[in-house]
Amino acid sequence: xxxxxxxxxxxxxxxxxxxxxxxxxxxxxxxxxxxxxxxxxxxxxxxxxxxxxxxxxxxxxxxxxxxxxxxxxxxxxxxxxxxxxxxxxxxxxxxxxxxxxxxxxxxxxxxxxxxxxxxxxxxxxxxxxxxxxxxxxxxxxxxxxxxxxxxxxxxxxxxxxxxxxxxxxxxxxxxxxxxxxxxxxxxxxxxx
Length: 192
Fold this sequence. Notes:
Layout: H1 7-32, H2 37-47, E1 53-55, H3 56-63, H4 67-79, E2 83-87, E3 95-99, H5 101-121, H6 128-145, H7 155-161, E4 165-169, E5 175-179, H8 184-191
Antiparallel strand pairs: 1-3, 2-3, 4-5
Helix pairs in contact: 1-5, 3-4
């Protein structure tokens, strides 16, 4: 018989509840800046990237959008003047999404309240030690479930984030190495 009190069920349930609750608290500032969550995620990833640009395929990998999904987002943001698409000089098949001055201004306008909301509803509830532990724990999990989440941010980050294998605990708690298995979206992206 399955135990409904399994701590693994509790862990994922708490994670889902916290994520939903945080998005409810953080979304109003984004909406006031006329940004959806995916618009903000796209702009902040560009803003935090070297030269404030990413290859479209790397932006798709970082945001978990399909290549067509990220194209639609970038098209919309480009119409609003927040990003521009720039052809890659060394590869005619590739292009970059680049943050514009207007996109940077929009980010700079929303960031102070967004950071305050994060402090109020998330990081400010934790001690510095708890926050350090949480960040380390989240990175361990992220690196297994989304190994390309930092794709294109820097060549060194790509080599680390897209490693071919990961070490994870098995059900008994022992560590085991698993190959990095791309999901269906990753396989589609690699063909694009």
